Amino acid sequence: MTYEMIKKNYERGLWSKQMVAIAVKKGIITKEQYEKIVGEPYPE
């Protein structure tokens, strides 16, 4: 799974914000990338 794939899946409605946040927790993407994908700060 890559940043680009996660971004596409979120934009298509296949991933929720919670799923993107899990990718941050697993170290797949950064908090900054989360913010770029969902347009909101990463929930701490």
Output the keywords.
about 45 residues; globular
Biggest pleated sheet: none
H/E element sequence: HHH
Number of domains: 1
Beta-strand percent range = under 5%
User: Structural class of the secondary elements?
Assistant: mainly alpha
Low-pLDDT stretches are: none
State the distance separating the first and last CA atoms: 23 Å
The helical percent reads 55-70%
Task: Provide the residue-averaged pLDDT.
Answer: 97
Question: What is the count of helical runs?
Answer: 3
| Radius of gyration (Å) | 9 Å
Number of strands: 0
Specify the overall morphology: globular
Structure overview:
It is a single chain. It is built from three helices and no strands. It starts with a helix and ends in a 6-residue tail after the last helix. The protein has one domain (3-38). By secondary structure, it is mainly α. The longest helix is centred in the N-terminal third of the chain and has 9 residues, at 3-11. It has helices at residues 3-11, 17-25, 31-38. The protein is globular. Helix 2 packs antiparallel against helix 3 (31-38).
